[in-house]
Amino acid sequence: MGDARENEAYEEELLDYEEEEEKVPDSVATKGNGEAGKKGYTSIHSSGFRDFLLKPELLRAIVDSGFEHPSEVQHECVPQAILGMDVICQAKSGMGKTAVFVLSTLQQIDPVAGHVSALVLCHTRELAYQICHEFERFSTYLPDVKVAVFYGGVNIKIHKDLLKNECPHIAVGTPGRILPLA
Known about the structure:
Radius of gyration: 21 Å
Number of helices: 8
Strand content: 5-15%
Number of domains: 1
CATH superfamily: P-loop containing nucleotide triphosphate hydrolases
Strand order of the largest sheet: 3-5-4
Distance between the termini: 40 Å
Largest sheet: 3 strands, parallel
Structural class: mainly alpha
């Protein structure tokens, strides 16, 4: 019971990055001939992913994934992360936090054969798998970028061979597996 109350209190403390919307005034929603037009809402942040000046391959993958506009957390954090600044971002589930570091990492990465350029540590293997999937999804049109996931429950020899023979540029994994591979 105590955990549920603590969880609720924690959820209330999280910043809410939902898209803010403004009601369109009736004068704007009226057509020039006096007929009432469609009433609707407009987003405060109307910028798109193109405004981040991402690689064309990343923009193509974003469009293929069905994203049209960045969420508020992405709008605030992606430009800073792309510049190489340290970013701490806190938001509710599903607000696009993973895409912030995935896109900024893929934007900055310069793949070098046999060299791991980025390491992402996750506290569970499920999260490691999901993040690896996001890297794969957004790097679809970056054929030179290799991503691999490392977690327990898989023979460590397989992971050692993978690092030796097909070294990924981005390694995603759990500390319990990454540490013995280091």
